[in-house]
Amino acid sequence: KVGLRWQPSNTVMVFARVADGFRDGGSNYQAPGYPEMVASYGPEKVRAYELGFKSQPRPWLTLNGSLCRNDWTDLQLSFLTRDALFNFIQNAGKAVATGGELELAARPVQSLRLGLNVAVVDARIDRDVSNALGMRVATKGNRIPFSPRLQTSVSAAYQFKLPGNLGGAVSANLAHRGEPYSTPANAPSMRNGRIDLLTLRLGVQAQQWSAALFVNNAANRQASTTRALFPGATVTQATFVPPRTVGLEVSAEF
Known about the structure:
By secondary structure, the protein is an all-beta fold. 0% of the residues lie in helices and 63% in strands. It has strands spanning 2-9, 12-23, 26-27, 40-41, 44-58, 61-73, 76-80, 87-91, 95-109, 112-125, 129-130, 136-138, 150-162, 166-177, 195-205, 209-216, 224-229, 236-240, 245-252. It has an 11-stranded antiparallel beta sheet with strand order 1-2-5-6-9-10-13-14-15-16-19, with no helix packed on it. The chain has a two-stranded antiparallel sheet with strand order 3-4.
């Protein structure tokens, strides 16, 4: 990894990084009668470029941003046999991911904190991928599995005083995730839904104990996080985000 950093002023820092990395190869389970399953797969290599800045234009405001590009060689991806009975890993040639991220944190008054995070990434396979039988299993331009184009989050937290030397806090966070695919083939049935999750929290804190009431997925949204085919490749199985969950969290120090 090589990095450069430049600070043109007391409130702004600009940086650039280039890094190389790899992930070891391995072997696949060899099921009889499945010639499309490769016996082994090679290491995955990546070169990552990043250019960004960190700034504090006001004492109460922080603004950070970056642009990035990742170039993969021999990307390791998971594929299914034609009857969906077995998974196996195969090198998928080249892939490219480009994107950017913007982060904002503000504290306009002492008791209020605001946050915003936006990330946009376009991650795609850069050439056609065929299995050991010569069948195309992914097409150039397909999106890399589990790589949503857009992810955002907005948060707000407010602290206040309560009688008896107690402190209180209320917070809300809304997180959005785009619609990623679960497989390299990008079949429509393997596309997951968008996720919009609202988390609420109300807490009380003393010197040696704290308690908080929380609500996860307050709007009770339904969206799949992963999709897969049942054996026989006729029925899709989906895993969904947990439904609305209400709970109480208590902690103490002794």
